[in-house]
Amino acid sequence: MVNLPGQWMADQQQAGHRLCVMLEGSNAAREPMMAVRAVAESCTLYAHTPLAEMAPSGPVILLLDQGAEPALLDLLDTPEMHWGWLCSLPTADLAGVARHWRDRLLVGSPGSQSLYRVHDNRTLARTLAYLPGQHWPAFLGPMISVCYWHEKHWYISNNPAPGEYPVPEPVPWLNVPNPNAGAILHANILRYLLAEHSEALVALVEFQDPKVWLTQVLEQARVWHWKRPDQLEFLVVRRLEEATRSSVIRWQPVAGEAPADHFERVVQQWRLMEKEG
User: Fold this and answer.
1) How far apart are the C-alpha atoms of 186 and 44, rounded to whole Å?
2) pLDDT of residue 111 exceeding 70
3) Domain coordinates in residue numbering, the chain
């Protein structure tokens, strides 16, 4: 059986490239691997960013001198732990790759930014599988090649044009679909209902499985193209009221009605019903 990471590392070194590992901050190998490296051979990814307070326990980028380092071999033996990924650079200078990823760490408008998990091999794999080749250079930047684990296999992806690139606008890799998005949304809505509408949720449990009920409601939202948070909240909360009280809303869209118009009409109907008692 071919040792793909080992062969990749040998090929990259033979080509004169430097090896690196992007290592997840909570992995047990983080501190031991940093301890045996000079300052210039490691870089804490969150340093010099708005996430600086998290830098001591956040992901790191480490130069690798050789592929037989015991801690590295342990990582390669446990790829299912999702500890990060390997990459190659043209030089031993980590400044360029650190600057590249720091520019891509936070996404969204100031005040409502979220963290882009560049250190996660699953994020890397999904992005490279989704992005057309012309967007790879802006995503991978100075990295020449990457080696990563995804769904029980090792993969290698080569950057067609390594170099320094600004973050494009719009950012193409932020459109990568998350296969777990549905489950995450489902869980978050149930948490919200438990916190804000617990009595109605408890009443629902007496005659229906909340998970099955919510799946049906979210399918209705999908069919009607109600995607905004306010649309989902209205639909879920009002449907919960219907299921546990006597209120009834005429939900079905009128023929030819646009999703936004459909939503506004139903909201107005509900407000009128509330006003009338």
Assistant:
1) 34
2) no
3) 4-175, 181-276
- The label of the residue with tokens 């037989």 reads 68
End-to-end, the C-alpha distance of the chain in Å comes to 72
DSSP codes joined into one string, 67-85: TT-HHHHHHHH-GGG--EE
3-state secondary structure of 97: helix
- Model confidence pTM above 0.90: no
DSSP 195: H
**65: closest CA among 99, 21, 23?**
21
What phi, psi does 84 have (nearest 5°)?
140, -145
- Within 10 angstroms of residue 196's Cβ, the number of other Cβ atoms is 11
Which of 53-57, 184-188, 223-227 has the least mean pLDDT?
A: 184-188
CB-CB contact of 163 with 141 (8 Å): yes
Q: Are 122 and 82 spatial neighbours (Cβ–Cβ below 8 Å)?
A: yes
Cβ-based neighbours of 14, under 8 Å, separated by 6 or more? none
Q: Residue 202: CB partners within 8 Å, gap ≥ 6?
A: none
Name the nearest CA neighbour of 84 among 95, 71, 93.
71
Distance CA 118, CA 254 (A): 45
Does the pLDDT value for residue 1 go beyond 50? no
DSSP-assigned states of every residue in 214-265? HHHHHHHHHHHT--SHHHHHHHHHHHHHHHHSS-----PPPTT--HHHHHHH
**C-alpha span between 146 and 49 (Å, rounded):** 24
Q: Which amino acid is at 118?
A: V
